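Re: [ENG-882] Designed sequences occasionally contain unexpected residues at chain ends

Forwarding the minimal case from QA. Structure tokens:
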């Protein structure tokens, strides 16, 4: 929808459309984005229906309706021993109920990430995703106003004969907790389920999202003091 003037009705519509991206979880993701210049994409729709929905949300947004198409929170470039890899991330606030489940069940977020894996594999196999992200990197390199650090990172993908791959296994980012909450016996059970299903290296936890680099940065093994 094209808005040629801003009145109360249009302003309310814009507020409704943006409200689904507000809250502590999205604020935390914004801090992570500021901290990691290797992040090159956000709110990634993994289906054609999801892409269509993005265009229609400003036209048809209900008071309590949020986006339902599969969307990963962000994607980042990371250095590997053989080149550059694109990695996807799903971010959750520590209090999010999708991280927890009854003793004999798996948290909802695990099913969510497993579905993402299938969709990513589909796009990798037909070559569509690699072409798309190479173009995104080229756009970052060409645009004015892009930070020099981000330009330097994307140019690793654009170098002649550069090895560029896409990791089909998204990582889970959890933030917004203190040490007592993290070490509490109750969440320990849920953390164990997450790590058993996804692997310890794919479950990233840090209380303060403003200083969240480990496992996300261009050099994924890097560690910063909190």
């Amino acid at each position: 929808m094209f808005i040629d003037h801003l009145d109360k009705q249009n302003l309310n519509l814009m507020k409704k459309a943006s409200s689904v991206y507000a809250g502590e979880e999205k604020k935390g993701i914004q801090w992570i984005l500021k901290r990691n210049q290797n992040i090159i994409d956000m709110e990634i729709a993994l289906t054609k229906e999801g892409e269509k929905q993005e265009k229609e949300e400003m036209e048809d947004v209900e008071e309590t309706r949020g986006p339902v198409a599969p969307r990963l929170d962000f994607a980042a470039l990371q250095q590997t021993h053989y080149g550059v890899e694109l990695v996807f991330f799903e971010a959750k606030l520590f209090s999010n109920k999708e991280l927890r489940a009854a003793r004999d069940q798996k948290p909802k977020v695990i099913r969510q990430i497993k579905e993402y894996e299938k969709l990513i594999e589909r796009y990798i196999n037909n070559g569509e995703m690699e072409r798309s992200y190479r173009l995104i990197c080229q756009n970052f390199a060409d645009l004015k106003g892009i930070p020099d650090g981000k330009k330097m990172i994307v140019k690793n993908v654009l170098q002649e004969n550069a090895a560029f791959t896409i990791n089909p296994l998204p990582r889970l980012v959890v933030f917004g907790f203190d040490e007592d909450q993290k070490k509490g016996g109750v969440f320990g059970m849920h953390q164990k389920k997450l790590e058993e299903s996804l692997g310890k290296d794919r479950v990233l936890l840090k209380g303060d999202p403003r200083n969240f680099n480990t496992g996300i940065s261009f050099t994924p093994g890097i560690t910063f003091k909190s």
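QA comment: On inspection the terminal residues look reasonable. Strands lie at 39-45, 71-80, 83-93, 164-166, 171-175, 203-206. Proposing we downgrade this to a documentation issue.
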